[in-house]
Protein: SRCR domain-containing protein
Organism: Ataeniobius toweri
Amino acid sequence: MGKSVTGGYVYRGCEHPNLNGMYIFGDFMSGRLMSLKEDKNSGQWKYNEICMGMGQTCTFPGLINNYYPYIISFAEDESGELYFMSTGTPSATSPSGVIYKVVDPSRRAPPRHCHYDTLPVRVKSNVIQFVPQETLFGVELLAKNKPEPEPTKTYDWLLELLDHLSDRGRALTTPIPIRTTTRPPRSSKRKGRRRKGKTRTGNISELQNGAVRLIKDEFMQGDRGRVEIYIHGEWGTVCDDLWSMKNAEVVCRQLGFQYALKAARNSEFGEGRELRILLDDVHCNGTESNLLNCTHAGVGNHNCAHYEDAGVICGNTRPIAEASKSATGRKEPSGLQRDKS
């Protein structure tokens, strides 16, 4: 069966019940692992080779299915578990080698069933933590086929609360200008049916100066986002470190919302670096039709950067603070009333 048998031990451990009573040994030259087990009825010893698993049974963490072939010696610990030592060269004087523990993954003892107290061993050096260096061979791990989990996303609880309170009709936004190609005029037999005062100039109406939109993560948003304004044929950002709720009220009302829930500063909804900064130092009293009617430093004039891009959160539900004031009967100042003077 071999050239140089290396004697082993009878397994008397607890962790692997299927190995109980097996005499496990090997061959130094061929690297073959073998076992003998006595048949108690006939008194005969049955021989079996110990094969390394090649299926998914061996894909438990820390298990391998290959070893250096030149088996030098076997050993057991105080709990009866078996080990063997082998090298990569056919010599007992090899300067390096590996210690392996024999494991049967097909059947293991129940959790917390095996308990033993290790014997204290005196050592002169510091204990070195064991780190396995070998890997599985010939087995395609399931973990490689599993997609990596997405990173956990964090949410602002205030934004979640405001989102819950806002109305579903928050999809009202100013349309984005769309590039259109010129088409040859079509002849129509209904020329006499045109309404007076209207000309046929195209399917998309011209955007007016002062139109606004809300952008978040480079996408159009319904009720919140970075404020971008359309002036003289281009979109730009509003950069203001003193961005106020009055300014936010003008933007939200222009987009069709009843209330401004938050005036966001310091590029809370991202920086619009691909656009020019068109407005700065905007001061509104809350009644203007758009931001151009408020006082500002002038179109294109600014002394700020994109990290101060302004944003808003709008809604059709009264903010919590205002609702509580109304419930107590106190008169609240409204930014939507004109000064009587």
Q: What stands out?
A: The two ends are 112 Å apart (CA to CA). Residues 197-205, 330-341 have pLDDT under 50 and may be disordered. The first strand starts at residue 5 and ends at 10.
